[in-house]
Amino acid sequence: MSEHTVATVEELDDGDRKLIELEGREIALFRINGEFRAYTNWCLHQGGPACEGSVTGTSSAEFDRDELQTDLQWCKEGEVLNCPWHGWEYDIPTGECLSKEGTKLPSHPVEVKDGDVIVSL
Ligand code: FES
Q: Which residues form a coiled coil (predicted)?
């Protein structure tokens, strides 16, 4: 496993991202809720540049079987990545794909050391 210093902590405010190339791979570094996350810029749908998409929230639906009503709630504002090709959604803090249950963006370990942000591949 190789370590790469990709940014300083001060370089990214909460909600920011930085696209980088490491060993020929496109990687996106996110700062979200004070934590750093690194994902390969590759959508699970058809390989689009998922990490370059807009950041929004998403809708959550609950169905009440007794009342036969659906309750829609807007949630996760600022934590959902939308792939620019066809709109698949990803939860930035976890990498979980919200459009296909049980799948995640490929992630990479991130460590903060002496003010530097280090990604391991
Ligand atoms: S390639 Fe990302 S949604 Fe289709």
A: none
Give 45-78 pLDDT, tens digit per residue: 999 999 999 999 999 999 999 999 999 999 999 9
Q: Is the CB of 92 under 6 A from ligand 1?
A: no
**Count of CB atoms situated within 10 Å of the CB of 67:** 8
Rounded to an integer, what distance in angstroms lies between the CA atom of residue 103 and that of residue 55? 19
By residue range, what is the domain housing residue 71?
3-120
Q: What is the pTM of this model?
A: 0.92
Dist. CA 93–CA 107, nearest whole Å: 11
Region class of 22: left (phi > 0), else alpha (psi between -120 and 50), else beta: beta
7 Cα to the center of ligand 1, angstroms = 28
Q: What share of the chain is helix, strand, coil (3-state, %, to 5)?
A: 5, 55, 40
Looking up residue 78, the CATH number of its domain turns out to be 2.102.10.10
